[in-house]
Amino acid sequence: MPRKKKDSNHLKHEAAEKKHMQKDANGVSRKADRKLSVEIKPDNYFVLCDGRSVKDIAELAKILETLSDDVFYYHVTTEKNDFANWLNDVFKEEQLASDIRSSKSKIEMIALLYKRLFEKMERL
Fold this sequence. Notes:
Layout: H1 8-20, E1 21-23, E2 29-31, E3 46-47, E4 53-54, H2 57-66, H3 69-75, H4 82-91, H5 94-102, H6 106-123
Antiparallel strand pairs: 1-2, 3-4
Helix pairs in contact: 2-6, 4-5
């Protein structure tokens, strides 16, 4: 059976979608904040000191829920916050990174991540 040709409305929609696509300095393709999760290259995954990889904000929030204190405090000290740096550098989430850096506990960090994910969901 022959395939249907795309009508002009469908072609216009595809062109509009391409127009909304952006690539940042890390080569991350994303629609202008219309997607809850962005795909990043494996080179930009966050690798925990225990060897596990984290590929997006939702996965970071979920992993933090069960992350041991040893692993957490390896990445978060008074001098550094690897999670905040990753959020800022890879996802360009400057405000979230700042909030994470200022947070006082793992629970507060998890809450901030889920809050940001909820805000993104509301915009979809």
